[in-house]
Amino acid sequence: MLLLECPYCGVKADETELTPGGEAHLKRFGPGSTDEAFEEYLFLRPNPKGVHFERWRHAHGCGKWFLAARDTATLEVFGTYTAQTTEPPEHIIDAIRAKRPDWSQA
Amino acid sequence: MRRYSAFAIAREAARHHQGWERAWKSPAPKKSYDAIIVGAGGHGLATAYYLGRNHGIRNVAVIEKGWLGGGNTGRNTTIIRSNYLQDPSAAIFEKARSLYETLSQDLNYNIMFSPRGVMMLAQTEHELRGWQRTAHANKLQGIETEFIGPKKVKELCPIINLDGPRYPVLGALWQARGGTARHDAVAWGYARACSDMGMDIIQQTEVTGVRRDGGKVIGVETTKGFIGCTKLGIVVAGHSGVLAEMAGFRLPIESVALQALVSEPIKPCMDVVVMANTVHGYMSQSDKGEMVIGGGADGYNNYTQRGSFHHVEETVRALVETFPIISRLKMLRWWGGIVDMTGDRSPILSTTPVENCFINCGWGTGGFKAIPGSGWAMAELMAKGHSPLAEEFSLTRFREGRFIDESVAAGVAH
Ligand SMILES: Cc1cc2nc3c(=O)[nH]c(=O)nc-3n(C[C@H](O)[C@H](O)[C@H](O)COP(=O)(O)OP(=O)(O)OC[C@H]3O[C@@H](n4cnc5c(N)ncnc54)[C@H](O)[C@@H]3O)c2cc1C
Ligand SMILES: [Zn+2]
Q: Which residue among A78, A93, B29, B285 is the one 20 to 30 A from B68 at the CA level?
């Protein structure tokens, strides 16, 4: 069972308390953008086997969206952070690098 | 290849079963092939088979990182049906279902196709209307299905509880020609037939890179070195994103875990397949007597072939309500597979941005039933560059907004 700490209320919640929300840090494209950019934003996903940044909602808790860095091949969680950011914060990157020296950010 | 037959069993019995040949060879890879298929699951092997049988392309290798049929093909709950809503789906799934009917004879390998009938319960008003709509759509598609009332449901499946407290059974979509087959045998049967045509099935060999030259594929890097090819077919289900990255493009796919479990064997009590989509559970009884149970997929990206406990609990809870008889059954085995989900819950059979590189993926939670039809279409696509069955399933449909929306139609994994 996945355990993720909600960065807002500090609760260590198991996955039954949370709703997964897919890939994080998507760059949004709307009217006026190219078909390629729109397709990329709406559909195309790196779907990595390894480090993945993703959205979760503390659905049965504070109800807020937060972000997590997790390894999809091992289920290891590197950390969670608040959603008010367009890229993963430094301490999360450091936590990943410490455990995955070969990892490079796409 | 020596044919299997009743006579062969008698002959081998008389000489203490010393004379059986290996079902397929395990050759070392050649330097290059006309076509390489990555992934020896059902879809990859069927693609190779129809490349040889329908298009005369036999200089083919199927490269598999584990053992053949060890991916989702060997992990699924084997439901076969073709009662989809959209025309392109109905066409390819019905092609598959009809090929399944004679596959044992075609391959000279008993795949144990059992057209015992598949029943999809309607347990809410919404679902009732949905299945009635599908029954109408199927009529127009020439696919034999029927919407049946609760009485008929009980007749066909006496162990069902029609008036469960949460979700009473209001009727069902019934496809009498649907059913199950032996999943391993499908992979083994195709593998044996491919090997017999002189194709190389190369197991325990992982593809680690896709080599290109000027936007065109020229071969693959593997753990046994470089192997050249004129055409490449990527058929790796949950690992499609990983292979696409090697080839330099992205897919509209996310990989998640889907689980299943089987009970201890019990006496025959259910001779149809029942799917209860609203409560996310489905069940059938295997020939060994085990109750084969599946449910919904996990919601987050996962490559571990392990799922979460609470999904199993959800599934089993719902099924106990629908089939009270199973409440004290012990479960024997529980496993997961990594399924490749697209946004519209329909597969991708397509050319790719890389020339001569084709992809077959996105079958997600429901591709076992499609294996023969998918292989048929993929082989045609690879041999000729286009296939009527595959046309609507191209990668470009997402950009062009031509979705083949089956998520509304099915709503649950199977
Ligand atoms: C629990 C569960 C229940 C299901 N129930 C049903 C059902 O009832 N009915 C139904 O129709 N469908 C069902 N499905 C879906 C069905 O199993 C799949 O859609 C289908 O088996 C996919 O077949 P495939 O050949 O595409 O993939 P797979 O059988 O997964 O084969 C892909 C192969 O590619 C190999 N591979 C991956 N990466 C590499 C690499 N780099 N190099 C070489 N080889 C590689 C893998 O090892 C694997 O053997 C279920 C799936 C699961 C997990
Ligand atoms: Zn919270």
A: B285
